[in-house]
Amino acid sequence: MQKPKAVGPQAGARKYDILSALMAFALSQDKIVQRRVMRIMALITARYNWQRDELCVGQREIARMWSVDERTVKREMAVLRGLGWLVQKRKGARGRLSVYGLDLERMMEDTRPAWPLIGPDFVERVGGRPEAPESNVVPLRGPVPMAGEGVWATAQARLHAEDPVTYGAWFHGLSEVEAGQGRLVLAAPSAFHATYVRTHFLTRLTSLARRIDPTLGEVRIEH
What we know:
alpha+beta; 2 domains; two-stranded antiparallel sheet; 7 strands; elongated; WH_DNA-bd_sf; DnaA_N_sf; DnaA N-terminal domain-containing protein
């Protein structure tokens, strides 16, 4: 993946790519995540200094922008720091405001599962994949799973065969943590990824895993 620095040549296009990824990701999530992403997008578009990588704005101003109270601002900023999207560069003291930076690369990585929702051209551009040598049209295909034994290896092969795009976006990044004693535990690369898979694909994964191993009782997605 190209590093999403939004300065220098083609900076404008990179800014749109980052905001597009955030928007597509938000629209694929529940209302809580949607609101949170909209809030960080509001700060980015209204107050973020791209050149200096600085976000310097007081809680009262943020509360007004978000139409919430300052307690909500404090809580949400803490969550965004926990996600790694906001990075505190200087803590406010003696009347000075805290200064934050943005980890744009982390944002792009966390929103990666939503890239195919924008389109294969977007995945091609921000994913840094080379063009096909004999065609200007690059089909979006999920990565081929590694051959192996066990419930999850078999499930990966079937998921890829059924839908390579969905496999590449959501299932390829899952790794087996535990298998046996009636359960299969998979780890997701991010908290957002884990939440999305639980919400939209857990029933499908559980059904497929039980067809492969009828003794299986539970499929769990962790981060």
